[in-house]
Each structure stands twice: as C-alpha cells, then as structure tokens.
Amino acid sequence: MINNRNGIIIIVIMFLGKLIALMRDIFMSKAYGISYVADAYNISYILTVTIFGVISSAITNSLIPALSNVNNSSDDKSKLFGFLSNVINVMSVISIIITIGTILCSRQIVIIIGGELTSDTVNLASNLVKISLISIVFLTLNSILNAILRICNYYKTPVFATLVLNIPSLLYLIFFSNNGVGGLTVALVLGYIIQCLIQIPALVKLGYKHKFFICLKDINLVHAFKSIPSMILASGILQISVMFDNRMAGNLGNGYISSLAIASKVNALVYTVFATSLIQVVYAQMANAYKGKNKSAVKSILINFVNKILILILPMMIVMIMLSKEIITLLFFRGEFSREAVNISSTALVFYSLGLIFYIIRDILNYAFYSMDLKKIPIKIGIYSVIINIILNIILTPLIGIGGISLATSIAAVVSVIVLRYKLSISVGNMILINKRELLKVIIGIIPIIINIIIYKSSVNSINIISLAILAIVSCIEYLFILFILKHSEIKVKRGLL
User: Fold this and answer.
1) How far apart are CA 172 and CA 174, in angstroms?
2) Residue 81 to residues 157, 206, 228, 376, 388: CA-CA distances in angstroms?
3) Mind listing the pLDDT tens digit for each residue in 109-136?
4) pTM of the complete model
5) Closest CA to 388 of 353, 346, 367, 417
6) Is residue 47 classed as helix, strand or coil in its secondary structure?
7) By C-alpha distance, which of 328, 283, 280, 325 is closest to 301?
C-alpha cells in the first residue's frame, strides 16, 4: 500500500521528471529550432516513445493481474520468479524480432508517419529510427520490471526510474549538442538502459534469480497475452490521432512537426501537473465504490471530481489561450528557435488549450467505465473520436494551417465527452455533470484574470519571468478572493477548516 508520505514522494518525483523533460525540450529547441533536423528526431521519438510506449503500457497493465494471481496463489516466491523469468525471456525474443523487422522497414515507416517530408528529413529520420528502435527491448523490460515491483509494493523505484529517463538527453543537449542529433538519439537509448539498471537491484533484493527458459503453455502467460491486444487498443486509439496529426503537420513543411510537438508537450505538462495524480486517486475511489455495486457513489465521485477540476483548469485554459505566445517565447525563444517558430507553436497551443478541460473530463469518464468493467464502451467511442479527428484534420488544416490540427483534436475531445456522458448516464442514471451555479462563480472569478492579461499585454514591452510571475500571483489572489466572496462550495469547505 502507498502511505501518504510515499504518495507525496512519488508525486514530487513525477513532477521532477516532467521538469527535466521540459528542460530537455527547451535545450533541444535552442539547439535545433524547428528545422528538418528537429522534425527527424521527433519522428524517431514518436515511433519509439509514443507508439511502442503504448505497447509497453499495455504489457504492464496486462501483466499486473497475471503476476498478482501467481503471487497470491502461493507464498513461495520461486513460482512468481519462475513465471517472471518466462515472461522476460518470451518478451525479449518478441521485442528483438519487432526491432529487427521495424529497422528493415524504417524508411517506409518514416514516410507513413511524417507525410510529405523532404528527402533530407526522410534520410535523417530513417537513420535515427534505426538507432532509437534499440530502445524497444529495454522499454519492454522496463514495463515488466515496473509491473513486478509494483506487485511487490516497490512503488518508489519504478517512479524514480522514470525520473532518470531524460537526464542523458538533457546532459547531451547542454554539453554536446554541436555533435549532431544522432548523439541525442543514442542518449535516449541510454536513458532506457539506465532505467532497467536502476530497477534490477530492487528485484535482486527481493530474491530474484533469472532463469533462461521459455514455456508458451503457461496458463498465466496465455491469459496475460490474450489481454494485451485489448489493452493496446484501449491505450493506442488516441495515438492513431497523434500519428495522423504529425503526418498532416509534415505536409505543411519543415519544422511543423516540431512546432506541433512543442505545443502538445506544453499542453500535456499542464494536464500532468494539475490532473494526472487526481485522476488516479479518483479512479481508485470509483473502483472501490463499484466493488460494492454502488453506482450512485461512482456517479457522486465523478461529479465531485469534475466540479473540483473546473476550478483549477478553466483559469489555466484562459491563461494559455491569451498568453500562448508569451509562454512559448519565455520557454523556447533562444538559439535556433526563431520568432517564426514561436508564432507557429503558439498558434497550435491556443487551439490545443481550447480542449484542455475536455481532455481531462474525457479521461475521467473513460476511467469511470473502466471502474465498472465496461471497457468496450470507451474503446468504441475512442475509435469514433479518431475518425472525427482525421476528418476534421482534412477539413481544417488547409483552412487554418497548424491551428487546424490542434483544433481538430480539441473538437474530437468535446464530442467524446458528450457521447461518453450520455452512455454513462444510461449505466449510472441521469446526471448533471457540471453544477451550473458553481461554474458561473468560476467564470466570474476568471474575469479579473482576463482584465489583468489585457492590461499586461498592452503595457509590458518585453516578456520576462518576473513580470509574468507578478501577473500570476495577483491574478491568483483575485481569483480565489472572488470565489471566497461568492461562497464557492470548494472554497467554503476550506474556510470551514481554518
């Protein structure tokens, strides 16, 4: 079990990991801007981290029940470790085969992902892909080690392993970026190797000794493998949209894939910091509530979460939309990252930000279905969402460029929320997801933030972290004060505790 102290430590480590990733992106934009070089690296990164990362996540989620079953069936750890050895051996062989096959088709895969790229981009990307694909073996091993350590209540070690992933890449960009992007790709591979090495001592401490054998008839292995395809489908649906988005961005010209990636990462950073931990907690609460077949409790937990998250995210949405150019400038405008790159990336960020609250609500609604063992519904809706995103991409991108790509993503999220909410109402009863009175209070609280930003943009000539920090502090105080005066339910609870 995770106690409060360990939970705080894990959250801090996760935040530090995201901070290191952001620093890596900042230094990368400084070194390579939004050139074809950056595009080529991002293509290789997308293939390895995004696509095979989904497969890795599916493996972890599929193995945890199987490992838990073996662990609970006997106090003898030798059975658990024997099964683990078998899993590692089988998945290592599969990973090596996939790696070799993908390397042989690297050029074709780059063209599929990247769209209408220049020959220089295709050539460089295909070479980088051949290097980055080495990561697949270690990515797979990391997933397996992550799963077994969580089963054995070693939570901090896997989380700490994620912290170090981007450190080799960051160090390379700081000290060796002039040596070319090939070294950066090697640093990425090194990050995955270090992740494995960090987790192995914890496994050895548990008494694990590896055995070299393969048994494909193991019933637990068979069950785990059967669930992997559905897990990949559930986790990977949205990645199809990501791949298509990048293909459309590639068609716009050099640098657009990199610009889209930067905007997406900034948007995802806000999501991660403000929502990820809360979603995991709420998911556990809904799952526990449904164990007692208490659908009304599931509904109550869900509604409570949505109204809480609105307080945090709606102001952030406004800030990111109105200050998109300032945010991108502050973070990335240096070195090879030009003013044009700022304009392109900030445009994408504006339209991504429009859907921020809907990304969060969509995910928590998906988890509500998962908690009630209704996985097919979010998968089907996810497929429809991908189709909508692709259609909107085709329509909007020629009209508004890179903004059309991110706007398509946001609209698809809105549609998903509408349909998911309707389907969930059938399962748990009719529900009003958002309290309109409390929402109105939040909107009123946001008005001073909008006024502050307008004044800031009209009076401040140069963008710097001090002026933005002052703007943020003043706006936050005003926002919370208004919610307090209006007696918002969440603020009222906190006041009662003082």
Assistant:
1) 5
2) 18, 10, 21, 33, 45
3) 888 877 778 888 889 999 998 898 888 8
4) 0.75
5) 417
6) helix
7) 283
